């Protein structure tokens, strides 16, 4: 009889004396957003108002609460799922959105990646080994300079070359000009190596601008793009995935503000749910402070077998070095993509050589 | 000779021994995102790489740092401004984006609200007094029930009636059906009161869906809509403001806490910069933990005289009650909109009476 629910799991820091009131306040804030006493409709109290399903003490002044929320309120919209799960509650400093438990039908309605890990393995003809990726930077280079870098990366046999996420549609390297120049450079290198390196341009602006950028991507015969869902809006990612089923979508974590939504949920599960084929995140021990546990959970979430959602490829990034490749592969296994940017660019004139060493290490592993 | 810069101001929590290294790391992360030693282009080191302009100790293990970033990297895109100001650095738990100092030309290129406070005062014929607003909720009600509520609010002489931000395009009250029903109900009430109450439907989904929703809004003769920029993406807000110059845009703060951007900057300055005519935020002492200082700074940012940007109307909300109206007006003055939702709805059958008391208090103030 009851309408379907999903479960939002929060970690709350507060005094034990107020946790019950806080849990009830969150249940209301994330659903009807008004005093229950002011609601006279029984079906809303029963089906729509959030419910406090459990409160567990995890440690001193730290609680985990499970709140039941109505699936009907999501209305099939990705932004609305984030809105109902964490919208106004994100304004509270003492609450973190820790996890979501979604019913099968809701997962199925979003549908996840169109290509994902299995599609990438098939399209690249790489059934087992890890994928390799690097980044064009710094921002500010001209299209020709970026194209030159891309050619040298591609000559090193790398699988994917993405734009830095800070490279948008700027005067120094306009999207159309840059994508054309880099695509041509990569085609030349592919002709020389025989290895099908793929260029991954970064989309920016609003949805209409991104649609125009994707038409350029398609005209250049490219297969993959980079999107930043927390900048663009998760509904924008969903719209692109729906409209471009043959494009491989990389999701970038920028503005992910991961202190408040747990990164294994946001990048590992939600970006996958909304259709990202590959999800970039900072591996531990680089420039960002994620723990090994967070990285492991994130990768597991991206890969977890799910009859309704293809796996997303976890892309470990953020200050990785070539020396760490075996260690990283030991940690994740080979269902992973390794993204090395600055550490390869630091080799300057030896860029192609160090790239070749990197791709060779990955190919020979273990 | 130097290319124009904007300044990003961060608050960083760390040991004094590492603040210089952290500041330099943020300057690089938010610009070239690679070791400076790997960059051989002098113009990029000079014009594009971020600069640490100052480091000040605010208290024990708390620092304020000013980082200079290149205006050219923004490329006129709202999402890209957030990306350059806080993208990857949002992933660090110990850094908050505290403020931005933007050159005049950059402000001018975004342009701010098309209508804003002066436009609202003119269109509503209200040169002095504060504006009043309420909210349709709970989510889950049918279009007819929401229309009935709206009619009773409008009979109380309120200026704006917005959808709750959780009311999207759900099966229980589809956007087209709801907007049509509520608009008709408000028209009936306006015919009775002579006061031009305006209904503010909530847009949701991706940019294309929002454009379709705006065509319905226009067809119904409505003048205002609600958008959630942190869900939809700030570039989506910009695109809508550009395409619909006669529509009044209310911005909702939902999901605005997740990225740890100071609320007076995000809601007061950035939402204004990107074109929001009215910015909703939680007033202190309601359901959210903002301090009086934060609220005062936020309202001042929205209103600060600026020859390039019209003022946005600060909309104080989040658990306000009618009893607090004089106190809130004493605090903000009358360049404000007061949003009372649940506390009016709690009156149930007396909804129109308490709404009339609320609008009367505001009209008679001081």
Number of helices of chain A: 15
SS strand fraction of chain A:
15-25%
Low-confidence stretches of chain A: none
Look up the CATH topology of the largest domain in chain A. Answer: TIM Barrel
If classified by CATH, what would the architecture of the largest domain in chain A be?
Alpha-Beta Barrel
What general outline of chain A do the C-alpha atoms trace? elongated
Trace the largest sheet of chain A across and list its strands: 7-6-5-12-11-10-9-8
User: What kind of oligomer do you see?
Assistant: homodimer
Distance between the termini of chain A: 54 Å
Total number of domains of chain A: 2
- Elements of chain A, N to C (H/E): EHHEEHEHHEHEHEHEHHEHEHEHEHH
Main beta-sheet annotation of chain A: 8 strands, parallel
- According to CATH, the homologous superfamily of the largest domain in chain A is Ribulose bisphosphate carboxylase, large subunit, C-terminal domain
Helix fraction bin of chain A: 40-55%
The total count of strands of chain A amounts to 12
Q: What top-tier CATH class of the largest domain in chain A fits best?
A: Alpha Beta
Protein structure class of chain A: alpha/beta
Q: What does the radius of gyration of chain A come to? A: 22 Å
| Largest interchain contact | A-B, 88 and 83 residues
Average pLDDT of chain A, to the nearest integer? 94
């Amino acid at each position: 009889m009851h309408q379907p629910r999903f479960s939002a799991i929060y970690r709350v820091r507060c005094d034990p004396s107020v946790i019950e009131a806080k849990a009830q306040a969150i249940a209301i804030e994330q659903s009807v957003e008004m005093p229950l006493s002011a609601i006279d409709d029984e079906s809303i109290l029963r089906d729509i108002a959030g419910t406090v399903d459990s409160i567990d003490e995890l440690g001193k002044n730290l609680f985990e609460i499970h709140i039941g929320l109505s699936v009907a309120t999501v209305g099939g919209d990705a932004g609305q799922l984030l809105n109902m799960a964490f919208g106004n509650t994100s304004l509270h400093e003492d609450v973190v959105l820790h996890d979501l438990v979604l019913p099968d039908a809701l997962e199925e309605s979003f549908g996840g990646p169109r290509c994902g890990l299995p599609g990438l393995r098939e399209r690249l003809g790489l059934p087992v080994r890890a994928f390799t990726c690097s980044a064009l930077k710094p921002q500010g280079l001209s299209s020709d300079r970026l194209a030159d870098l891309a050619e040298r990366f591609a000559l090193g046999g790398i699988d994917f070359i993405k734009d830095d996420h800070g490279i948008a549609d700027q005067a120094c390297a306009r999207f159309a000009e840059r994508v054309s120049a880099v695509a041509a450079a990569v085609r030349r290198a592919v002709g020389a190596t025989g290895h099908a390196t793929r260029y991954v341009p970064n989309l920016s602006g609003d949805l209409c601008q991104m649609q125009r950028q994707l038409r350029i991507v398609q005209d250049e015969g490219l297969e993959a793009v980079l999107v930043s869902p927390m900048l663009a809006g998760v509904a924008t990612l969903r719209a692109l995935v729906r409209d471009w089923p043959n494009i491989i979508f990389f999701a970038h974590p920028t503005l992910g503000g991961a202190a408040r939504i747990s990164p294994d949920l946001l990048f590992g599960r939600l970006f996958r749910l909304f259709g990202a084929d590959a999800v970039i995140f900072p591996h531990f021990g680089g420039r960002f402070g994620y723990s090994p546990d967070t990285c492991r959970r994130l990768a597991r979430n991206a890969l977890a077998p799910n009859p309704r959602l293809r796996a997303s490829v976890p892309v470990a990034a953020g200050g990785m070095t070539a020396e760490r490749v075996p260690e990283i592969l030991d940690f994740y296994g080979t269902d992973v993509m390794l993204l090395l940017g600055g550490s390869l660019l630091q080799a300057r004139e030896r860029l192609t050589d160090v790239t070749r060493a990197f791709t060779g290490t990955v190919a020979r592993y273990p």
